C-alpha cells in the first residue's frame, strides 16, 4: 500500500483498524515509510503492549513484569526491540534480582507460561504444582514422536533486567531441541525428556519431562519443566 493511499486515511482509522492487525516485525518495517507513521507506531503504548503480551503470555502472569517494562524508555516497544537484537554481549550479574519470562508454544500457540522473579544462584529453587494440571499433547502416531515435538514445540525464555531497563532473549531461533533420554516408570508408563540449550554453553538449558501413557494417538503429559544455568545453578518447576 503506497503512502499516497495512507495520506488520504484518517489517522484514527489507521490506528484503530490497520495497525492492530499487523505483527511487531511488520510494524517495525512499516514505521520506516514516513515520519508520521513512525511517530504513530512508536508512541502507541497500547499497541505494543498488546503485541508483546499476546506473543509472550507469561508477561501477564505477574504484575511486576508489566511494571518493570513500563519503566523502559519506550516501554513495550523497547522490550520488543530488545528481544530482536543480538544479545551475545549481555553480562550477567548474579546478585541482581531479575525477571525470567518463560513461554512454550505448540503449533505456534501458547502451551505453557511461567514467570520467575529473583536471582539464579547455586541453590536450587523449586516450585511445585499439581501434576494433574499439566497440559497434554496428542501425537498422531507413535512413530516419529520426537520429530513431531521438535517441529511443533518452540521455546522462549526472556531475561528482564529491572536495573538496566533492558531484556535479552536466551533462546534464539537457532537453538534446537535434543532428545535427552527415556525410562520406564511402570508397566504402562514411560517418561521422556527433551531439552534445549542456549548460546555457546553460557546460557541456560531447559528440559521438558513427559509421561507417556501410550494409546493411539499417543498421549504425552507434561510432567516437569526444569531450567538450568551452568553459572548460577538450577531451578525446577514441577507441574
UniProtKB/TrEMBL annotation:
The record ties this protein, via InterPro entries, to: AT3G44326-like, F-box-like_dom_sf
Give the top-rank taxon of the lineage listed in the UniProt record for this protein.
Answer: Eukaryota
Q: Membrane spanning segments where?
A: none
Q: What is this protein called?
A: F-box protein
Instruction: Supply the source organism for this entry.
Output: Medicago truncatula
Source taxonomy? Eukaryota, Viridiplantae, Streptophyta, Embryophyta, Tracheophyta
